[in-house]
Write a structure and sequence with these properties.
Shape of chain B: elongated
Helix content of chain A: 10-25%
Largest sheet of chain B: 14 strands, mixed
Shape of chain A: elongated
Strand order of the largest sheet of chain B: 5-2-8-9-12-7-6-41-42-36-24-23-37-38
Distance between the termini of chain B: 51 Å
Oligomer: heterodimer
Distance between the termini of chain A: 17 Å
Number of helices of chain B: 11
Number of strands of chain A: 9
Amino acid sequence: MATALTTIFGGEIKVYAQPRQADRQYVGFPGAHGLTGMHMGTRGRQLVITGRLRAEGNDYDAARANLQEDIDEIEEYLWAEASDYSFKDDTYSNVVFDRLNLTPDSQGKVFHFNSKEEVFADFVCFARQLI
Amino acid sequence: MTEDAKKLVRDAQPLIVEIRRGSGSPPNFGGWELLWGAKVERIEINAAGTPSIATVWFPERRWHEQPYYNLGDSVRIKTDVDVIVFDGFITSLLPSFTGGRVSPSIAFERNAFAASSYRWLYASTSPVYGRLARGLDDYEDGEPVAGSVIFLSGQRTIFNEDGRPNCDPVLYEGGTCDTPVFADSDRAVYWTAKDMLRYILSPSYNRIYQYWPIENPNELSGLDHKDWQKVLTHIAVEGLSVIAAVELICRHIGWSFREDYSGDSPELVFYKPGAASGYTRSDSNPTILHQLYAPDVGNTIDAAVSRGEKLLYAMELAKDITSVINNPWGLGAPHRFEFTAELVPAWLDERLEPDTSDGNINLFITESDLQALTDKNEKSFYKHYHSRGSEFRRNVGRKWVLNESGRYSNPDTYNRGHVFDFAEIVPEEYIIDTDSGKRLFAPLRRQLLLCLTLDKDSLNSVGIKVEFCFNGDEENPEDRIWQVIPAAISSLKDEYGIYIDEANLSELVDEAEGTITEGVLADIQLNYWTSLCDDILNERPFFDEEGQCQWRTRCRVTASVQLDQRLWLQVAPSPASGSPFLHTQLYDFSEKYGLLKRTAASRFTSADPPMSAYELDSTDYFGRHLEAIRRANEDRSISGQFTLDRLWLGSACSPQPDFAIGDCIKEIKGREYDLSANLGGEGSETKVYPEIIQIIHSCEHQKTKIITRDLRFAEVLL
């Protein structure tokens, strides 16, 4: 049973899969034109999840602390076993999470506080479909 | 479908690891099962006594996780088209890890094992010692009982010990094959190299027969070659493992061996290094030639790839002359000659003072008469000349020498004539320098050696023959009577001579029991002592002014002597030599070659009936040996490492690895680079090529690396 990515990252996400990349070794021969390539297989599809995380609180500090707790929970997935995940109509099988980055705005600010007593942060998460 | 080797983009070859789990000790193995998650890192195929080794790891397993295999489990590695590349046993577990650094990270955890091939297990479990032979109970009515031998743990495993045959001519018919066994040299034949292998590899010494059943060593691949019929002497394998023993025997005849994999257990294949020929492997042609390919400058590689050439990705080659030997020198044993020669007394004449008092009654006293005397030392004979005398004159009457160093030539002391001239008894060709005419020996002290003449009964040397004569004044030498007198006599350690150990010299009596016929001692019993006294009392000089011996008492000895020259040969380089210099290596073959000759001066030469002698002149054989050494070593050596751009592990249409130990690299096409070395010298023009001694399949990198060496390692086979 696939886990919905929205249960991990919330509803404000976009998900796409990069095509597989070929892993090929090339060897050359001195003085001659040409290479032979050794097809070493593919490295799986990279899955890119972008979006925004939000948390409420009475003030900036409380809301940010709440958001940090959510981020810590997501972080746990970075060393989870490979598993199947879904988003909308697509299911991504054998996925492991490699990296979770919070993305700053042009002034370098990551955590933003708004009038609804929310702190929000944008992120990008890189995962990999092993198959 | 195009073969992988003919495509510009090759596919990485997956390797399958299978395991048979063992239980018990020694283990019983179950059926083959796939070892999931295993990844082959490297397979190293080795030659002769060095087992092949494979390293396998498990990418998904932490280093500390308990493996689901055990040390000792049977493991094999094969391709996806069932070509077995390796077969062996897990010998090492190799957990490892490193935490690495933050960036770039080299952190890893590894859960791996190493496996060694069957040769390791054979060598580890099966020592060679003792002898299989027929005991008294293994015969019935004088005939060997089929399938019956005993194991003699107190006998050492030495084939053709001391050069004597010790192989029973009747094979032991036991188990799955007929096996030669040991026997006493009196009723034995020589072991050939093949016989030795049949013995060592027989089921009797194979303690892993249940895993590697070599049912009949006689049928092993390669042993039909005539080289295996060669007789090797004194091959001692006691205490070696079976594999080490096989390697030792192979080395003596210039052969090697490897494991080939096909069925449930490997096949032992013997091959002759340098004999690779053709390009198709078969049972009768276990080693083949290979042409590698390095594209020519400016060319594209597509045509070569489409032909399926074995493309070289990297190479390191060394051609060098540092190990050339094109001018070998050989040394044989020093020359040894048997001859008969008269010795001279090694004492001063004035030290022999016969007691002629009381009508010669005290001249000598026999042992029985001595028993009646209370003070024996009152008698001059006893006091000075009996070995128990109080003032015993040790050498007088007892020490006889050849005077080969001139020690006894001083006219003022011993006056025993000139230094002995060996040129008078040794044939001129061996002792006179043909250019200068000089005698090729120096006045050095020597030692009596056993005669070369053989006793017809024991076939051993007759020893050293000492004879005495009491009528040496006879003008005609033929009239002199030489007799062996029973007495304790020893040879001198530091000069060519004898010493009479007998306590009472008067007990050395004349065989004819005669008397002295004239002079002061007329009618006195003739014995060795009285004969000496007779010479002294009659003032006979040992040598007169004309150099003639005047003594009636003489002593002669027949023995052999080692002189100052030896077989010495050198072989000149041929035009095919790989170096402009004269590279010399001195080989001491004292144990193998020499010159042993019984001269005409030996009394046994004209013995009636004739007596045979162990004579030897191995000059011709020695020369051929040196020629063979020169041929094998006169060209430059070629050794190298060749890395191919893919794994060459066979294919569905050729289900065996493309390269095998013992194959040779003939040339590098594309650049047209010849790798031959000339091993024939003038005339024969035999070419040899670098021999593969190790193959490394680097599976992680999908490359096959070949290690070669030149062939001068092989012992010379004559």
